[in-house]
């Protein structure tokens, strides 16, 4: 367990393995622990760094407004702190948004990008959008994190054989700091860099579950806006693909990273 400080906030990260640096960024209400099925596999091939985003896991939870740009600045500072040079960057859900932000602001820091069940913007445009967000916002404030975790577990892992994943999800969710969780949720709403995607020159893989919260079509649409991107759809998966389809996920990611590394070496 290691920590580094950025703008008065102690951020927790873990390092494994050797080789080209590969950084994994979790989603809202999550932590480094949700990469448990990736760490042993990926660290066999790469210098793997997993991070707890500000307000999450074992990182500090400052009482302030959070922003995707702020999370991205923390990530940039960590890459600088560890003197990593360009990294392979993987972001899941809110982590994907943080990665998109870094990719448009500081493209030189990124060797390749993998976005998992995420989007380059969360804009509230229609009355229905407003109602959906208001519902989520209200429920999050009214319900305990334990209750939210149970509901999420049931939605993400509905199969009878996924009992352990459901229970673990509820346990982990309950450990969140409610104020930091809500501040992170608020950071997502209204954020977006979709109009800047043409600036993301690095090879990009978008991994998307066939039963994610948002349709595959949404990912197909933004993949077209990226100069060097392709989409991989993982069947029989929901929003937590790295946990519900770890073998498929790891294999898809490793094939992409290997291809990217061999192309870079050829140049």
UniProtKB/TrEMBL annotation:
Its cellular-component GO annotations read: membrane
AB hydrolase-1 domain spans which residues? 21-244
Q: Name one Pfam family in it.
A: Abhydrolase_1
Q: Does the keyword Hydrolase apply?
A: yes
On the tree of life, the source organism's domain of life is Bacteria
A single MF term (Gene Ontology): hydrolase activity
Instruction: Give the keywords, sorted.
Output: Hydrolase
Mind telling me what this protein is named?
A: Alpha/beta hydrolase
């Amino acid at each position: 367990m290691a920590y580094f400080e950025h703008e008065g906030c102690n951020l927790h990260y873990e390092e494994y393995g050797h080789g080209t640096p590969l950084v994994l960024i979790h989603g809202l209400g999550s932590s480094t622990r949700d990469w448990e099925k990736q760490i042993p596999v990926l660290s066999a091939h790469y210098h793997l760094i997993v991070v707890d985003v500000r307000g999450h896991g074992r990182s500090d939870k400052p009482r302030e407004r959070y922003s995707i740009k702020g999370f991205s600045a923390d990530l940039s500072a960590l890459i600088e702190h560890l003197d990593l040079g360009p990294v392979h960057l993987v972001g899941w859900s809110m982590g994907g948004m943080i990665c998109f932000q870094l990719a448009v602001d500081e493209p030189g820091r990124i060797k390749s990008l993998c976005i998992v069940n995420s989007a380059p913007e969360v804009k509230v445009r229609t009355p229905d959008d407003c109602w959906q967000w208001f519902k989520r916002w209200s429920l999050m404030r009214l319900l305990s994190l334990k209750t939210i975790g149970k509901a999420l577990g049931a939605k993400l892992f509905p199969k009878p054989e996924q009992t352990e994943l459901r229970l673990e999800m509820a346990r982990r969710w309950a450990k969140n700091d409610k104020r930091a969780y809500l501040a992170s949720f608020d950071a997502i709403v209204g954020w977006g860099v979709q109009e800047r995607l043409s600036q993301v020159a690095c090879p990009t893989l978008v991994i998307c579950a066939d039963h994610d919260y948002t349709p595959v079509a949404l990912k197909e649409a933004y993949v077209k806006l990226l100069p060097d991107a392709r989409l991989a759809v993982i069947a029989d998966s929901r929003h937590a693909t790295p946990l519900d389809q770890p073998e498929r996920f790891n294999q898809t990611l490793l094939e992409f990273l290997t291809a990217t590394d061999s192309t870079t070496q050829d140049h």
